[in-house]
Specification:
This protein is mainly alpha-helical. It has helices at residues 21-33, 35-48, 62-70, 81-90, 106-126, 160-173, 179-188, and strands at residues 76-78, 102-104, 131-135, 148-150, 202-203.
């Protein structure tokens, strides 16, 4: 497998906050339905690119071998001047020095998404109270209308893709094969111990 197939959304949108309830529901079911195929592609790709140590067993420790492989795959590319200037305009001047002139390549972003599926399914397998879900309000929450993991204390939501993206950014600066495993361990501290109401999977 030389190419890494991208995941194409079922419809275009101007950000998750702009989605209607119907669109959020449609996107959620489509997204979660991609999980199995995306994880299969990820596994096949690891095996053909030096990641034979990774076994797709959905164990917390398998995240170590997966991340150890992924750190060799991270590819950063230069942002265009237009991209960079557009980012600068979104933030006050005092944070401009922290805005990178590089970004992940498209392939790296695709792998990040697929690792987030594996991370999520591993979490669900070992934490029975955790499940996929989404919520449509309040609109000011960062993960509104996005597929996230629910079943945590204080109504916390885990966005697997955000977690993996943050870990990838850190690993682009300094490798640590335990980084994703440590993120998993941190979030297990916030899982609830009571059986969830299935209606809570969709917070409308």
């Amino acid at each position: 497998m030389n190419e890494y197939k991208l995941m194409i959304a079922p419809f275009n949108h101007n950000g998750f906050r702009s989605l209607s309830k119907k669109q959020a529901e449609e996107y959620f079911h489509w997204y979660v339905g991609q999980s199995k195929a995306r994880i299969e592609q990820l596994y096949e790709y690891t095996q053909s690119t030096g990641g034979a140590a990774f076994l797709c067993e959905y164990t917390p420790d398998s995240l170590i071998d997966l991340w150890n492989w992924f750190e060799t795959q991270i590819n950063m590319v230069a942002k265009s001047e237009e991209e960079y200037q557009a980012e600068l305009e979104q933030f006050p001047e005092w944070v401009h020095d922290s805005i990178s002139k590089k970004r992940f390549s498209v392939r790296t972003l695709a792998i990040i998404t697929d690792i987030s599926f594996y991370f999520a399914e591993t979490f669900i397998k070992h934490n029975p109270m955790v499940r996929w879900g989404y919520f449509t309000k309040p609109k000011n929450e960062v993960s509104v209308n996005m597929p996230v993991l629910l079943g945590f204390k204080s109504n916390m939501k885990l966005d697997p893709r955000r977690i993996v993206s943050v870990c990838a950014s850190e690993s682009s600066e300094q490798h640590d094969k335990n980084r994703l495993r440590n993120a998993y361990r941190t979030w297990t501290k916030y899982t609830v111990e009571t059986t969830p109401n299935i209606a809570d999977t969709f917070r409308l």
